[in-house]
Amino acid sequence: MKKILIINGHPDAESFNSALADAYLKGAQKSSAEVVYINLRDLQFNLNLQYGYRKRTELEPDLLKAQEKLKWADHLVWIYPVWWGSIPALMKGFLDRVLLPGFAFQKREGSLWWNKFFTGKTARLITTMDQPAWYYRLFNGSPSHKAMKKQTLQFIGVKSVKITAIGPVRLSKESFREKWLQKVALLGERNS
Asked: 3-class secondary structure for the chain?
């Protein structure tokens, strides 16, 4: 039985991202998967990794629980908007605070290499934007997708990272959004 963790990185409960996260959840619940859902906006934590990696910043209870869920899951589903070619500050703060050395990876003594602690996991990025997804990819180089896929998830050992880019959302019609909600529900049902 697949264990899925959905992480909604949008700070607004009424966002289209929240509807997408709910659609994925409903789809996954139709399968035999176990599903857990984290709304980052509901967590109480300091976004700032105050001392970097020089000195430990104690994790708040919500972040300790989030780490348990990240460790538990086989498949990580990240749902977030692309803002300024990047991820929301809320999600960046979450990543900085939870994907720590000793938990997600560990640098090797006297080496440039590191151990990856999230091997065997898979991921799906579901992102929204106010430009066509093809434009973001061809003309802007998909910076947030590359950062999440290569510099974050693959860095800690998640080899298979698939991306679903949805845009433009601003000024989109209800039919466009409904189509995407159905597609995302199907991804959840397929545990993909």
From this structure: CCEEEEEECCCCCCCHHHHHHHHHHHHHHHCCCEEEEEEHHHCCCCCCCCCCCCCCCCCCHHHHHHHHHHHHCCEEEEEEECECCECCHHHHHHHHHHCCECCCEEECCCCCCEEECCCCCEEEEEEECCCCHHHHHHCCCCHHHHHHHHHHHCCCCCCEEEEEEECCCCCCCHHHHHHHHHHHHHHHHCCC
The model's pLDDT over 162-171, given as tens digits with 9 standing for 90+, comes to 999 999 999 9
Whole-model pTM?
0.96
Quickly name the fold that domain 3-189 has: Rossmann fold (3.40.50)
Q: Where are the domains of the chain?
A: 3-189
The 10s digit of each residue's pLDDT in 32-91 is 899 999 999 999 999 998 998 888 889 999 999 999 999 999 999 999 999 999 999 999
